[in-house]
């Protein structure tokens, strides 16, 4: 056996555990979901093949359309806000003394349980005794809104929680991106008399575009899978105003026990996320710069 073949065998041997886990916990469940989406099954009896009927039912289901609208609205609020704030915080902390401590504080919510975070914010946003409304009244004399019981405010309220929760993760990504930008660019800009804002706009942002691209993709994928906050804080209410796609999938599977319809909704969600990701990758050629 020559050396090249031997090294190849050892290479596959080292990645075998990861490949096995990927096969068992990702690929097989994915294929199973596609197959189940073509079936009628209540979780107990015999599966019945019905073709694309589950998909047709979902596209005509008003709850699915509402869930898609709520999820898209949530994504439009969370992703741009989270990315912009993460960039600004990263730039502010990039050269601050004790930035390691600041990173720790900002990153702590990311590793905190989503259930715990949701329960804390459920208290903060309580319209009667929540600390936010209490301070609004004490400091500004404003009667706080009904954050989680007003149909127009519930998605922005959950989005506010999610931006705070995910800020630390994106901030760390952008801090790492800032470390990779050579100081020679800024020195040259200073010699030319460029202001801080021009340096940020013409140097920092373009050279951070690969990081921004990655953070945007991951944020959109995460936002389309929002479930914990809505489930714990509002139960999908009021009047299904916070009813998201993943909540719809949960409702179909574990409340109505229509697993075929649930799998079809999950496959549609997979298709939406895949399409958006491919579209972003195509559009990235116009604005992502890998120089420097």
TrEMBL record:
<dbReference type="InterPro" id="IPR051393">
    <property type="entry name" value="ABC_transporter_permease"/>
</dbReference>
<feature type="domain" description="ABC transmembrane type-1">
    <location>
        <begin position="68"/>
        <end position="280"/>
    </location>
</feature>
<dbReference type="InterPro" id="IPR000515">
    <property type="entry name" value="MetI-like"/>
</dbReference>
<feature type="transmembrane region" description="Helical">
    <location>
        <begin position="263"/>
        <end position="283"/>
    </location>
</feature>
<dbReference type="Pfam" id="PF00528">
    <property type="entry name" value="BPD_transp_1"/>
</dbReference>
<keyword id="KW-1003">Cell membrane</keyword>
<keyword id="KW-1133">Transmembrane helix</keyword>
<feature type="transmembrane region" description="Helical">
    <location>
        <begin position="12"/>
        <end position="36"/>
    </location>
</feature>
<feature type="transmembrane region" description="Helical">
    <location>
        <begin position="199"/>
        <end position="224"/>
    </location>
</feature>
<keyword id="KW-0812">Transmembrane</keyword>
<feature type="transmembrane region" description="Helical">
    <location>
        <begin position="72"/>
        <end position="93"/>
    </location>
</feature>
<feature type="transmembrane region" description="Helical">
    <location>
        <begin position="105"/>
        <end position="124"/>
    </location>
</feature>
<protein>
    <submittedName>
        <fullName>Sn-glycerol-3-phosphate transport system permease protein UgpA</fullName>
    </submittedName>
</protein>
<feature type="transmembrane region" description="Helical">
    <location>
        <begin position="153"/>
        <end position="178"/>
    </location>
</feature>
<comment type="similarity">
    <text>Belongs to the binding-protein-dependent transport system permease family.</text>
</comment>
<dbReference type="InterPro" id="IPR035906">
    <property type="entry name" value="MetI-like_sf"/>
</dbReference>
<keyword id="KW-0472">Membrane</keyword>
<keyword id="KW-0813">Transport</keyword>
């Amino acid at each position: 056996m020559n050396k090249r073949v031997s090294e190849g065998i050892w290479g596959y041997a080292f990645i075998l555990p990861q490949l096995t886990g990927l096969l068992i916990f990702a690929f097989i469940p994915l294929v199973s979901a596609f197959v189940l989406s073509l079936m009628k099954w209540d979780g107990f009896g015999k599966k019945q093949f019905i073709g694309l009927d589950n998909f047709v039912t979902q596209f005509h289901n008003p709850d699915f359309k509402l869930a898609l609208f709520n999820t898209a609205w949530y994504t439009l609020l969370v992703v741009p806000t989270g990315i912009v704030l993460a960039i600004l915080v990263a730039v502010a902390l990039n050269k601050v003394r004790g930035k390691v401590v600041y990173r720790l504080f900002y990153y702590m919510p990311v590793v905190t349980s989503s259930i715990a975070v949701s329960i804390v914010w459920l208290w903060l946003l309580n319209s009667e005794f929540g600390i936010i409304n209490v301070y609004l009244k004490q400091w500004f004399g404003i009667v706080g809104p009904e954050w989680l019981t007003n149909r127009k405010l519930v998605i922005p309220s959950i989005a506010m929680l999610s931006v705070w929760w995910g800020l630390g993760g994106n901030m760390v990504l952008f801090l790492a991106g800032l470390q990779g930008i050579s100081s020679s660019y800024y020195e040259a800009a200073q010699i030319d008399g460029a202001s801080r804002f021009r340096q940020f706009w013409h140097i920092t942002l373009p050279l951070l575009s690969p990081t921004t691209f990655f953070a945007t993709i991951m944020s959109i994928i995460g936002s389309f899978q929002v479930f914990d906050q809505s489930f714990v804080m509002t139960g999908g209410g009021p009047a299904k105003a916070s009813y998201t796609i993943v909540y719809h999938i949960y409702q179909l599977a574990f409340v109505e026990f229509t697993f075929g319809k649930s799998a079809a909704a999950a496959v549609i969600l997979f298709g939406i996320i895949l399409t958006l990701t491919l579209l972003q990758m195509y559009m990235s050629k116009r604005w992502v710069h890998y120089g420097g």
